[in-house]
Fold this protein.
Amino acid sequence: MSDIRFCATTRDEHWFTPEQAPVLEDMTAFPGAFLRLDQPRQRVDGFGICFNELGWVALSKLPEERRQEFLREVFAPGVGANLSVCRMPVGANDFSTDWYSYDEVEGDRALEHFSLAHDDATLVPFIRAAKAHRPDLSLWASPWCPPTWMKKNKHYACSAPNPLSEQTKYDNGLDPDNQIAEGTDGFILSEDNLDAYARYFGRFIDEYRARGIEISMVMPQNEFNSAQVFPACTWTPEGLIAFLKRLIPEMEARGVEVFFGTVERADDALVEKVLADPEVGPKIGGVGFQWDGKNAVPFVHHAHPGLKIYQSEQECGDGLNDWRYARYAWSMMRHYFTNGASVYDYWNLALEEGGVSRWGWSQNSLIVVDPETGEGRFSHEYYVLKHLSGFVEPGASFVSSLSYSGFENILSFLNPDGSVVIAAQNDMTEPQEFVVGVGAKNLRFMAPADSIVTLVVPADEVEVIAKPLA
């Protein structure tokens, strides 16, 4: 039917309308998958990326007009990817130009030397450029590392490079005898340090607010179980509880939410210990998961169905930006949304060709920039993300489905306007017909070989028997 939007992506064709139009017909036979529109599940708040310094470096290699075209396509409502909920670091992360914090003056617990000067050159203009196309952009933040004088080893990293690894050419200068082990508190848990670090977060919020940039939520630490060669700090759940007792009041005073995370291990006990604390647990608004943390998500969502879940950083690939990894990205989206995610954040918006970080890690990005020619292109993963982010509006509800074997590879959502979004992957080498029950109708469509497709059924085309969650 002409009113049903139908888009497809394959390895060779990024974005097209299949020749065979979908058909909406009476349900005379049971479909291969039936959407549970009568039982909408979690609210979807949006999709996003992380504002990393090397992303702005890459975008700055583009001519101004071309850079604005990319940013408009990614952020402007109703144009392309429609990104609306984004992440940023508190200080340096692994895709910064190098290590920095906002206060590297030893013992400055009064924060007299706190400065956002580094961000003013990179992250602030990056975020402002995005907000020019999406003024209502929502931001949340997490640190990779506190000021080094607050850490036990007085260094931004927790691990030295493996001497047998190619990564040794990106030496971080950490003495192997001064490493910090996973499962320990790399932060010095003194009362004055905990208090100063909570106020450090507060200054971060205040300084960005003074620049017209609101940050609505923070998480206390990125990947707190990972002892990395780049900016990192390990924590135990008990150490984070001690910090959260000081961080939460600082954020409450500023109207900023606090989530727990980010969790990168398949161990739901790490989350449960924090949620069980009688002072901290009730104040935690959600949890961020990434990497192997995805395997803890089903258990946490089952135990706490009302707790918000953010997919806080999509796994980043290997710098090849190939179709193989784009297909894997689809499986990640499917896993997170079927297990309760409200937000799905990609990692690098833009990188130069090859995507090599300051610490020698090659990663993928949505925009790939050739620094020699000043040309940029969207990667396969951009189009895969757009199949959901471009059609699922903030405030939509995730809709589960009852499926026969072979028809379970779909994701569906009910938008605030009553339209129904259905995305599906055909992972076979030949076209596949899908028959999906939507209300009292069957939607029949043909997905090209090895493709991802999205259909949007207007509210007036089908009997919608439930409304999105309030």
